[in-house]
Amino acid sequence: MGEIGVFASIVAGDTFKYYSEGEWRVSSSGKSVPIINPTTRKTQFEVQACTQDEVNKVMESAKIAQKSWAKTPLWKRAELLHKAAAILKDHKKPIAECLVKEIAKPAKDAATEVVRSGDLVSYCAEEGVRILGEGKFLMSDSFPGNERTKYCLTSKIPLGVVLAIPPFNYPVNLAVSKIAPALIAGNSLVLKPPTQGAVSALHMVHCFHLAGFPKGVISCITGKGSEIGDFLTMHPIVNCISFTGGDTGIAIAKKVSMIPLQMELGGKDACIILEDADLDLAASNIVKGGFSYSGQRCTAVKVVLVMESVADILVKKVNEKVGKLTVGPPENDCDITPVVTESSANFIEGLVMDAKKKGATFCQEYKREGNLIWPLLLDNVKQDMRIAWEEPFGPVLPIIRISNVEEGIHHCNASNFGLQGCVFTKDINKAMLISDAMETGTVQINSAPARGPDHFPFQGLKDSGIGSQGVTNSINMMTKIKSTVINLPTPSYTMG
Q1: Per the database record, which ranges form the Aldehyde dehydrogenase domain (predicted)?
Q2: Pairing of β 372-373 and β 417-418
């Protein structure tokens, strides 16, 4: 069957369906949500605008399905995940094409995202079998004052229904990073994809459908956040929320009931360049870290803090590399493609104009056509500029010159974000001391910030998140400990 045929059931006319109880359905609302192509700025796709009643039905079926799914042998759950991973990789082309049209991701990067997602699902299946197949055995006499009269057996059991909300920039990869750990652990999962990226996510969910997961174990609901967002996150059936995104995550955390939260929010990832740094290496990583996918990554380099004595040389090297970046449509695999929405482009422009007004040095001329913003390096950025603190999520990178390392650490720690940071130096002792001092979830030494490999722990401090991700941490977070204590009879005589 051709790839179009495989995905024919997920679309009705021009509108993509939502997925509930193992079937692709059309919403009773009769309404749809448009998805605007960032490049053409015209409607590319439409998805169902689901109702609160449909959310209720999805939640009820997820709750029922989870009970029997939790009893499904672990090896069988893993087998289905491996199957889904293979199907996902087999259909990377149509999914990658959706990513290009929905979020203007360069074609090559879009294909890589799908393959990486398949690898993550497979790894998660194997890791889950290892982690969840082990229990713990404790004896009471290891604690003072106790005889050996109790044996405690602990195991990991699922939480129930997990709600997964991924962001637009990795709608497939950051969806499966939540789906796979939830499912291997015996939870059912409800996915609320981002509007931009929803169609890619629906294609990905269909790969899980084709793998043969039981009805209700995985669902995908689309719609307007204003209508179903709070209703989903505050739903009494939800037992855990895994969210990746921005400020919305902080709002969710303030509203939800007493359930585990896994949140990866924004970042203002700082890059500290010391005097002894390999400046060619630093420049390459700054450009890769600051401008890949047009800077629309939580782990993008968002501010460069460079020692004054090497600043001129570094800026020259970075500028040379920025000049070689290609700018244009994602279909042409350009380095810099349109940012996701017009409102994003307007926000970025606001930061640029503020920096201009306050005297930043423009290393390139500011240029914008629609949602396409040409890469821009801003030198001599000062603390009173918004770009020094706010996250642009675009191809605009500020450089702040510092006179000592403490100044750089202070700037990093004064931010309300604390996702990742990096330090470039040839002195490992200095690197470790700086890493310890930086209030961020991860510090990269001599490399740009990055999420991954996907089994590495990934977490943010402060407003950058709650909990830790990475395959192993996600599996553990989506389970709880169950203890069974065997009380031994008091011996009436001494044996032996």
Answers
A1: 24-483
A2: unpaired
